[in-house]
Specification:
The protein has 5 helices and 4 strands, in the order H-H-H-E-H-E-E-H-E. It has about 150 residues and is α+β, with helices and mostly antiparallel strands. The protein folds into 2 domains: about 40 residues, Arc Repressor Mutant, subunit A, CATH 1.10.10; about 80 residues, Alpha-Beta Plaits. The chain has a 4-stranded antiparallel sheet with strand order 2-3-1-4. The radius of gyration is 20 Å and the shape is elongated.
Length: about 150
Amino acid sequence: MMELDEIDRKILRAMADDATQNAGALGRELGLSQPATWRRIKRLQEAGAIAGRTLDLDREKLGFGVTVFLGVKLATKGRVSLDDFERAVGAIPEVQTVEHVLGMYDYRLRVTARDIPDFERVLRRRIMTLPGVGDVEANVLLSEERRPGPI
């Protein structure tokens, strides 16, 4: 685990809010020089604290107004390997995340669709036909608030 000082935490919080900021803008916001900010960002990247920068798409504006979380329990773990299921579910473009979890379900999927009928099509034709799928529970996302985490 990496030791973070308060300036590192401020950099990480600011980058979590807007990862497009360059070192100069970020330094001005935090009262640091551009080179000092750049060195800290580089150190955080090299240590693995910053694993990358992602593009946050507005799915609703792109025509995908429904997000559903699915709990998937595999019917027969012995007959179908987890790798087979993960490979098959990973090929479905509407499935945004695949999480192997411990608990009532074996997997948690985040699925985006244009609307409820589109989600039903994805569920019936793509997800329910995957190897080993048993029980499935759906939870429709009503709203979401993102937080950067414990930084």
